[in-house]
Amino acid sequence: MIDSDKADFEVLLRGIADVFSTTKKVVVTRPMLQVYFLTLSEYSYQEVEWALGQHLKTPIDGKFFPKPENIIQHLRANELSTEEKAE
Length: 87
Description:
It contains four helices and no strands. The protein has 87 residues and is mostly helical.
């Protein structure tokens, strides 16, 4: 992601926090946004958005607010699938 994605990313992460706040309040702080953004910065906004959607669809992990590693797992799994498809 690039700096111009920060506002969209914030809206996306806060929206996901709202989804999970129905059972337990999830507060997205400025430092939290910075850590997530920094951790995910090697991926495009579209890739991160896709991976967050995949997380929400996962029966077990999708019950919990995603940590950066949860998002990265989906991104890496997609990379492997793409490479495997190419072979």
